[in-house]
Records
---
Amino acid sequence: MLTYITRRVIQGLIVLLAVSFICFIIFRYAGDPVLTLAGRYATHQEQEEVRRAFGLDKPFYVQYTRFIANAAHGNFGKSYVSRIPALNLILERVPATVELATSAILIAFLLGVGLGVLVSLKPRALRNRLIMAGSLGGISIPTFLMGILLIMVFAVYLKILPPFGRGETINLGWWRTGFLTLSGLGHLVLPAFTLGMYQLAVLLRLTRAGMREVLAEEYIKTAWAKGLPPRKVIFKHALRNVLIPVVTMTGLQFGELIAFSIVTETIFQWPGMGNLLLISIYESDQPVIVTYIMLAALIILSINIVVDILYGFLNPKIRYD
Amino acid sequence: MRKAFLLLLAVLLVGAVCGPAGQALGASSIVIAVDSPPRTMNPHGSDADSNLGVMANIFEGLLQRKGPQGELVPALALSYEHPDLLTWKFVLRQGVKFHNGNPFTAADVKYTFERLAVPEVSEFVNTGKSFTSIETPDDYTVIVKTKDPTPWFANNMHQIYIMDKESTEKRDPGEVGVKPIGTGPYKLVEWVKGSYLKFTANEDYWEGAPSIKEVELRPITESSTRFAALVSGQADIVSGIPVELYDKVVQDPKIDVVSRPARRAIFLALGNEPGSPTADIRVRQAIYMAINEDEIIEKVMRGHAAPAAQIPDPPTIGYNADLKRLPYDPAKAKELLKAAGFEKGFELTLVGPNDRYVQDAKIAEAVVKYLAKVGIQAKLDVKPKAIFFPEVNQGKTYFYLIGWFDGTFDMGRTYFKLIHTRDKDKGFGEWNGSNFTDPEIDKILESTASMVDRAEREKTLQNLNKITMVDKIAWIPLHYQVDLYAIQKDKGIKFQPRPDQWMVFKEISKQ
């Protein structure tokens, strides 16, 4: 088991290096930051001076090795736009994104699995057919459209939910949370729904399919025959076995939600990491972009490793060596 | 029993939360939604208007601009003189204090000017490097000498903000970029990046405490969300209403739309390489006359633009009121092309940004279509501004769409960057992406560098304007943008938009 973990960690580091290398190359050709740094009225000489001051005149491999060497010490460079260390810029937005992603995955999981179980019991009932049709919509409608529609309906016409922002937040030390205020929770509803809609639909369909399969098994028929109450049959015996792949998938999706909530954050002006990434791409803020993508890769890699290991514990048939 | 306890807890929580929240916005507070967030609280860290406009509330320059024409009036300096071509003398206002209590003196001005030349903290490198000496004979006098004659030097002083020497030197750049200390009418209370900025009035402000006591600035980059914030009543003033949503906003009875011709002119730059079709003045006239600008304004800009016959706007020195647009006449355009020997047309690629100006990509599309109608095989090449502007700066774009306005209200400085023949050593023509070159224009331009008398400058620049637009057709002007703002009607808000799009809170009042 230990060798397995070590091997996965080393593989992860190689992937991180590769990601950073590719990012570096791409964003070298995606715009010249010196133009913005030196100001609109700078002469060519002044631009060259600024280029030298930021080390942007050195050849590619020098810039890259310097970046990796600094990164190993935790220094990811300063944002070209706000002159603040890139890592700090991203880290201070982590609470917003994590809270949004957590709420989204909770909604997706609870509603997805709950509705999936409901629908699997009487698949041909009208209500359940409507729910399945709705889930198809959840998968097909793009996130930005969903977000804008929800804003129009709930914020502009019905005026019961706020259209943007996090609302009142409270600082727990370094972590700025919106969970502890009514305003913060209210502001979470629409964005979390928008972000989690796709996962909700997927989990719904997955649970339904899994439950249909399991409910036809012999041991379930035995449970019914034994006269067990329906709650026990469905949840204790059937759902448990369906949950293993569902939980694994949810865990993996969580990493993706944290890393790529860009569209939802832009629509709802949510001050999270995704919002920062989009702004930085527009402004060719290389240090922030490269740091962000490395961080995203790190998060997804770590979550994958953890989920794989947990899966080994959950399912005794899996052996790692 | 447990349920009752939980219910009580819930009620207390709601009460605890809603109580303070209810007092947040009283009678003299306001919420403003803007389209671009400020990047840094370091006043020299960005020369973008979105940042400078926010800084204008916390910091002040030696001079400031007020009124619809952007008139230059005293701020931290009571007066200034220009004794010779290279020297500027400023007499400073006394009794002004920074937000931390430090007195404002000439030492702060000297420190600020020297800081401008440091690339790690300043984007005003060009201004910073233009000084040869900065002297402070006493606490309230500053005498600067510039390397070359700079007639527009004072005109730039409204966007050079004075920082407190003592605290800026003591703190590290990271803190300076987050906690600003200026002399302005408002202090920054809280900045949650990407969410909001909260300001409170500076009661000791030298011009008198501003009337609105609490201001909340919310940057919302997504235009449909900004619109939702407006119609749901969450913002009192909203800037940057997109032209496509104008009709919806105007219909809402609770909202007032305020529009103002912007300073920015959108125009086409076209090279005149000897031997190419566009070196012939008739071809340039043909291209000008082939474009139906009225239709562009009506259909693409939805009526929110004013046709332009030149690049400077009326308050700028160099604006020539006698200039008129060439009429839209595709038949004449075809005749001119034929007379120049290009009846079959020629190939031309229009380059432009797609995320910088209002409807920029659509305008470029329309221009290409108009040119095709008179036989010119025009191609479209629009790209993000991060790629477009470096190409212009390197002189790789022969025919491109761009917008410009000069913060110093003096066309001379702009002409040097936009139309003078590219000269890397002298620092001319940085933004002359099409490599347009004309010795007559260069000569007249260079002669204005030493002109300080405003009347003389005005006459020469107006003449130069006429030559570039009529005799040489150096550029093909399209239109001036229009700035659209929306205000909640029944809150008694009085708001006059500024020509530079800055939101200066001390100029807004609320009954």
---
Amino acid sequence: MGQAAALAVLDAPLALVEAIDRDGLVRQAWRVERWPVSIGRALDNTVVLSDPHVAAHHASVDLVHDDDSGAATISVAAGETRNGVVVGREHLGAGATKRIADDGRDLELYIGRVVLRLRLPGHALVPEQAMTPVVAAEKRWLPTLALGVAVLALVLANTWIDSDPEGLSRSLGAMFLTTIAGGAIWCGLWSLLSKTFTRQSHFGWHVRVFVTASLVTLVLAVLPPLLAFAFSWPWVTDFSFIAVYATVAAAIYFHLLAVEPGRERLMRGVAATGFVVGVALSLWFNVQRTGRPGEELYMNHLFVPQLRVAKPKPVDDFIQGLAPMQAILDRKAKEQSGGDSDAGADGNDDE
Amino acid sequence: MTGLLALAAASALAAPPRAPTAASAPEAATGAVPALPSAPVSLSARKVYEQARSQLVQIRTVLKGRASQTSVGSGFFVTDQGHIVTNFHVVSEAALKPERHDLVYVTADGREAPLQILQLDVLHDLALLRAGDAAGRSFDALPFRPANEPLSQGERIYSLGNPLDVGFAVTQGTYNGLVKRSFYPQIFFGGALSAGMSGGPALDEEGHVVGVNVARRVDGEQVSFLVPAEFAIALLARGKDAAPLIGPAYAIVDEQLLKHQAALTDRFIAQGWKDATHPRYHVPVPPDVFMRCWGTSTLSQTGGLDFERSDCVMDTRIFVGDFNTGTIALRHESYDGSKLGPLRFASRYSASFRNEAFSRLSSQHQTKPRCNEDFIDRDGLALRAVVCMRAYKKLPQLYDVAVLVATLDQSESGVQGRFDAQGVTFANAQRLAHHYLDAFRWVKPQP
């Protein structure tokens, strides 16, 4: 009955054998017109491979139907091979045979360094997937362009602020070229990676990720200091580096999406791990350097006076507010002096 | 934040000894040789040296068990029981790290014997020692010049010691009165002092002690300093019968620094501020009593920020072994950004506020800084104020305090100030910070 159904489909092959690349795309496919299918380097095989790790007659695959139940069984036999065949997780040495009941899913065979996939007509198909954002973004250049213009405008505004009136045009020119060249190199390197792994450069996507991340970073360079100044919140700039790290980690995640499109979860893990490790290292380093987890000893961002929102305090209150520092300093002076003086003694002995 | 280059610090004279081969070139430039050709040693210099020769000693700090010296200075007998006066900085290693250093003296005829430390005067840089072989011995002592016979300017005095471990020497110079703006009295000696002469006596023509060699200015010629004899007399009276010091002398140093900071804080606050330091603000600048202020004016060559700067420092600082402390310094910068506009001015003003260091001493000596900050109100004038403090690890109850201030009432100009006090108690740090912040205000109340 199963055979009859297969014959009814005109021109459809009995099966399809596909050689799969590491990005999951099919490199080559062979139509199976009769069973068994023989695989090897010799020309009389159905599937002729060129990989030197494959034997002349490496393996053969057959499909057997049980007459009573109609259930299909796939039989894989390893030929005169040194390296054997891997079916699923099982390794077959020379001459071994394995029978696998067809469960409606494609079967993968590892022969030499080639990954082969056996597709049978009755197998279920994965539904059509929507276009990934990576590919979709390639087509839409306008938002990328708008973001890019915003980034350039902000960079040039920063340059204007940082340079004196004389020599401004030179600084602007230099900064314009540096930004364009830097961005091009960054996006170019990511495109190279994409091209290596996916055979598509995804340049448009990488540019989109780069300009978005740059814009966020530029905003982060201004917004936390402004908040810290306006409301007298030193902790904002003390820890604003965390937001910058998060932006960088997100940017790397989105860049990686266009390098390894099928492994979103892995890439998310890579970016999140990088973020957590980076933040932890920075906090640890700050504690070592200054005895405090934050970045700044004191809030050192002054804006135009009109942007100040916090109310100034009377001097008396401010001076009285210093009192808690005494206990902290006294504790630190005691707890560190022992260890440090020992270290000093060792250093002097060596001289 | 570095001081003006014109103000090279006075250098202490107990530098480590140099190898004899290396001594010729660099030391000849600073030492006594070029200083003396115009004034050949007079008859009285010879007489003074011959009289004082047996009372004069070289003081060596020796690494325990290694027999190699880490520093050399000079000293002199002041009693027939073997009391010796020298500088604190000559014996500081032995006083603060006795577990690793020994102290010995060597007389002009080559006799060497150990030394004990009886008493210190860290503030005037003096130490009272006693010969370790004093029992059953009698020493020649140098007499002090009586206090009721003050020297007059231009009087000849002779400084004795062992410069650079070369040999005992006498150099002559003149008495030039007391050093202006010194926190503690010091004699301005117009003669050449070299490293190694620290702690040696300065004698008048009768061979009476008028002072103790202590320091010289490396940026001048024959600008040297002596500790007046009265402090050596007081130290002798105080410590004559004291038991020798055992263990590191940090407790004594700490106690004397506590007295110093109390006096310094009181005098600093009592002296008030100068008038007319800025057209718009009262900016705190101390009067020239024991501090000295230098100003510079910088006009931008590229149409940027113009600013004026004033630095006030004390010449006096207290030497405490590995570092100095006990001074006050102030600075302010007055910025004019009218050529820049508010945004560009704010960026530069902010960068200048950021560019401050709090790392004078290594973490071996002090804790890392802690800061407190806020906007404060001075009769309607808004300021950003930051107070940062560090505690000394081996000197309990003493802290360094730094106060940063930036005015925040104009969008294209402003004044930033910094106040630093070293080695003060927490309460005095608060008092000084309060005193400094209170001094900021508008010259005329603004609408």
---
Amino acid sequence: MSGAVRVAAGVPSERAVTLKHGAGGRAMRRLIEETLTTGYDTAGESAPAWAIGLTALDDGAAIPVGDGWLVVTTDAHVIHPIVFPGGDIGRLAICGTVNDLAMMGATEPLGLTCSIILEDGFSRAELERIHRSMVAACREAGTTVVTGDTKVMGRGEIDGIAITTTGVGLTRAIVPDAGLRVGDCLVVTGTIGDHGIALMAKRHGLAADDVLCSDVAPVNGLVRAALASADGAIVAMKDPTRGGVASCLHEMAGKSSVAITIHEPVVPIRPAVRSAAELLGLDPLQIANEGKAIMGVRGGETAVARVLASLRAHPLGRDAAVIGECVPGESGRVVLDTGFGRRLVAEVDGDPLPRIC
Amino acid sequence: MPDVVGLEAARELKFRDPARARELAQALERVCAEVGRAPVSVMHVCGSHEQAIAKFGLRSVLPRTLDVIMGPGCPVCVTDLPEVDEAVVLAQDGVRIATYGDMLKVPGTAYSLAEVKGAGGRVEVVYSASQAVEMARDTTEEIVFFATGFETTAVATAAVILNDTPPNFSVLSAHKYIPPVMEIVAEMPGTRIEGFLAAGHAATITGWSIFERFVERHRIPVVVAGFEPLDILAGLVKLVELVRDGTPRVENMFPRCVTPAGNRNAQAQLWRVFRTTGGRWRGIAHVPNGNLRLRDEFAHVDARRRFRIDLQRLWTHAPSSLAQLCICGDIMAGIASPSRCPLFGRECMPETPVGACMVSSEGTCRIWHQYGGHPSL
Amino acid sequence: MCLGVPGQVVEVRDRVAVVDFWGVRRETRLDVIDEPVGPGDYILNHVGFAIRKIPAAEIGETLALYERLLAEADGDLMATDVRGEIDAGREAGQDDA
């Protein structure tokens, strides 16, 4: 591109969608709340009313079916680069949707749909590699792709590949992302920041393939084990993807009208991830994770111990830890006890990490 | 001597040892009480100090009687409107710009670089000056490195310039030099600053002896401090002790990195490439010798001399009424705090910044907003 | 900006050092450092350039400085408490490593 660039005079930036609206933070929430979820018949006047529907802004939607619930979720994946340490866009597309279902309590997906949009010229070998990843991820999750769609756009009209997956599952009990109460403990199922940092490191020439790797994995098995052992003690769940643990906790706290305190010294993080985050000037709490869950646990020490034991017995949950608790205070406020002092945990607003998911 | 890995681990942890930090915080409380008046006001002039203080939540453990004010230590925040405008004009004219990430959202007179990028301008974020040079090597198009930052960062720019840059590479220097602004702040009427915490990394380059004349002239102590929690707390303890004793001098609390003379090699490169010149720092008005510009010998890599940059066309836009309410200048001079700004947290937020202090990750307002700033925590 | 982070030199190639920061490696330019640097040395990195070689001995010196500061500020009566707390903190710190 060459030549002069004219910024349209007097066009306020709020009237255009910008990258920050896709970052998973405040701006995106506002776009969704103010535009994308308005107008639909959520009251059930001319369409079935979903118990957990659009207005809940949860990981998925749920409607009672028989003596249980049908859960459905969808996600688009535009990650770049499409192959990264620890995975690729195919693996991510499967795991992202499997995990969203799991976050609602639907840990045995009935099946997934897969819609792929390709750019003219996309390598067949690359596509086959991505396909193999998807197949492998499905096997790990105990599910399969049942239907899909394929489109090709002209060169330059789309960047490489975009994959959208939709998942459907049944569950006896729904675990919402709201529903926390003062006194509940917060558990993370493993180390934080792995996915986003692995991508950023690759983009910015930090060589560490052997130590910095995405954590992308299907956690439905892990969650199933925890729910089975918990006997109702897990009262809320959400996965800390875009926007990281920070955004996840903000949402959970805000929807439940509680405040949360997190204790930094006990938040599990790999030393290389912490170091890379410092080098890049990023806060690990704001970095995306693709193989972790945050759980709200109620019932005191015995309940927490049971949940932790079942998580740690699972290969994906070895580093599970209690990281904080719900406290009285301003709704949605998340405070970090750093071990030296206290500070607010900021929500991601802009776009520190474009195309991370 | 412990093994290498053990030493690394020990070092890392010792400068972040919470128990020692608690002890130092208590020592600080005691020393402040011994001064016998409140508040004791000290200033630091480094965005990285403010970030470290914020990140570790140190403000919540500082004594209520101690005011640690952030001065004009955020290089992005003090980059003046015309300087941003120069980059904006170049980008609008189709020139590829490389710059540090923070500069993207800083408001210029009419637009920020992010807005020009959104409209199709080619502005790219780099993490180092050498990355910008690499960009130039990969193309025949002109690449302009919009270089911001204080002297520590200017050293990196100088090093790449001295290293045989490709002909399509040039530098638009908005670099600044800190010591002169300390003079300005010390001389401001109404200033209550009783001591300065100097930036450890800048002092690694310049050495600590450059502060001796300042101390003699103004009779205010200067303590050079590093960036780990223990470094900052220990630095503050020493600074308040010097205030208490009325014995102004320069004290180096970062001996592992800072020497009296500093890094002569780096200094030589810096002053070979750059000269100081007076200029406006955003919100602080004129700072004599506060700006770093390329010497004539390096005119061939000076974007200001390579391109014709017509700023007039941006100045037909009237400054927004919000901009007129912005008190970033006072905040950066340490005479007001963000909570006193009518726009803070309302019209002026990280996603909709009015002043530069809200844009940069080192800006006082941004850090306060992000980390919940002050005492109530 | 990647500001002032210390790391350990793994390899030196001409004017570029490969530096390890807790398992993460990145290249750092040696143009502006004022003494020779070799594998095993600790350096302070700022925006991609090594600005200082950190002698291991000086780390101990800084810590001693802080200890002295504590001793002076506390006075002798508190000395035992301080020692105890610091030792406890040190042990806890090593457990985390």
